[in-house]
Specification:
single chain; alpha+beta; five-stranded antiparallel β-sheet; 8 helices; membrane; DUF1269_membrane
């Protein structure tokens, strides 16, 4: 995957049902051949700030990775501290630290409090950047949207670390 240019696409929602509907629309768009999504999740942050990873439907958007690793990569690229709060393993922590440092140095990133404030939801997707505009436009019910380039090397390293501890990540995310 290292040769692809990747983008993180985020849609923010005051209404969780609207986020779920857009997530399903993303799946439909992928199924009809309009674009290809590497991974996507719905995140819900309650009024107290606790974040839950939600996926809707019988199968995951994206292909190939275990659910825990796939969801973990999307969450880790969106907001490394969210994944760090649930992820286990030194390899994951080191990679998340590198991603966070790189973002801080480049003044890059998505502001979690802006796109996933307490009491809101977000659809977060990782896509090849050639599909970013189409995926962003598919999030029709979102209150605001953004797409940002991401380092495919960060994606590859985080995916590998998460796959190596996928069972632990799934257990933590589901607890």
């Amino acid at each position: 995957m290292g040769s692809k240019n990747l983008a993180l696409v985020v849609g923010s929602y005051d209404d969780t049902a609207a986020a779920s509907e857009d997530y399903e629309a993303l799946r439909s768009g992928q199924d009809s051949g309009g674009y290809e999504i590497i991974g996507a999740v719905v995140l819900v942050r309650d009024k107290d700030g606790k974040v839950q990873v939600k996926e809707h439907g019988a199968h995951s958007v994206g292909h190939g990775a275990a659910w825990g690793a796939g969801a973990g990569v999307v969450v880790g690229l969106f907001a490394p501290p969210l994944l760090a709060a649930t992820a286990v393993g030194a390899g994951i922590g080191a990679i998340l630290g590198k991603i966070k440092k790189s973002r801080d140095e480049k003044r890059f990133g998505v502001d979690v409090d802006e796109y996933l404030a307490p009491g809101t939801s977000a659809v977060v997707a990782v896509v090849d950047d050639k599909w970013a505009d189409r995926v962003e436009n598919a999030l029709t019910r979102s209150d605001k949207r953004i797409s940002k380039a991401i380092d495919s090397d960060d994606y590859d390293k985080l995916r590998k670390a998460l796959e190596e501890s996928a069972d632990d990540v799934v257990e933590q995310i589901n607890s």
